[in-house]
Write a structure and sequence with these properties.
76% helix; globular
Length: 219
């Protein structure tokens, strides 16, 4: 029987992921979809960083940022709440593509505010961290998946605290601390989600949903 998080906890239910070859193909498909999403996102960010005309146009028409932000929120709600949409092809892939484009647009605007070398360094560090965390998640000695509910509560509290901090925390050191906590939390989320995929426990979630979850963890 699956719980509210789409995780199959009943060992008596037949699990197609018990076959190593099936699980391996599924994981490869998830990470291929994730790679394409990150590649598209990186391409959009690169355009904003290296093409001055694009960055200037967006900064002159700042409302585009809020339109993209609104679309991200709407698409996220749709993908979370509407089973018929997120689990029917090709509608699910269309929503995933729109989500990736809007998210890349927002990241591109933020990246254009910084120097190109800073953006490239950040991308390099992110790639190295993701690779290290993924390899760590594949080991079997430490299981992070029992922390799912605890992490959910901590993340909600952190999100509310971070939103308040945007308006009231004027000290740079506090913002750095908030950022560090956020990086730590989402690093743990990346490990949890990867271990769930490796263990074949997310039977109620499709490839595109998993790739979106991992993309959010990384971004």
């Amino acid at each position: 029987m699956g719980n509210d998080f789409g995780i199959n906890d009943d060992d008596d239910v037949e699990n197609p992921f018990k076959e190593q070859s099936t699980r391996k193909k599924f994981i490869q498909k998830v990470y291929l979809t994730l790679f394409m999403q990150l590649l598209l996102t990186s391409g959009i960010v690169a355009i904003f960083v290296f093409v001055d005309a694009v960055a200037f146009y967006v900064h002159e028409h700042y409302y585009l940022k809020w339109i993209a932000f609104g679309l991200v929120i709407v698409l996220t709600i749709i993908l979370i709440c509407c089973d018929s949409i997120r689990r029917s092809s090709p509608t699910n892939y269309v929503c995933l593509l729109l989500f990736t484009l809007c998210y890349g647009f927002l990241l591109g605007i933020m990246a254009s505010l910084y120097a190109p070398d800073e953006v490239l360094i950040s991308l390099g560090i992110t790639g190295a961290v993701v690779l290290a965390l993924t390899l760590f998640a594949m080991q079997k000695k430490i299981d992070f998946t029992p922390l799912y509910c605890i992490m959910l509560i901590i993340s909600v509290v952190f999100l509310l605290f971070a939103i308040i901090g945007v308006f009231f925390f004027r000290y740079r050191i506090l913002r750095i601390v908030i950022a560090a906590i956020g990086v730590t939390l989402f690093s743990i989320w990346l490990i949890i989600d990867t271990q769930m995929i490796m263990g074949g426990r997310r039977l109620a979630i499709s490839t595109d949903e998993l790739s979106k979850i991992l993309q959010l963890d990384i971004v």
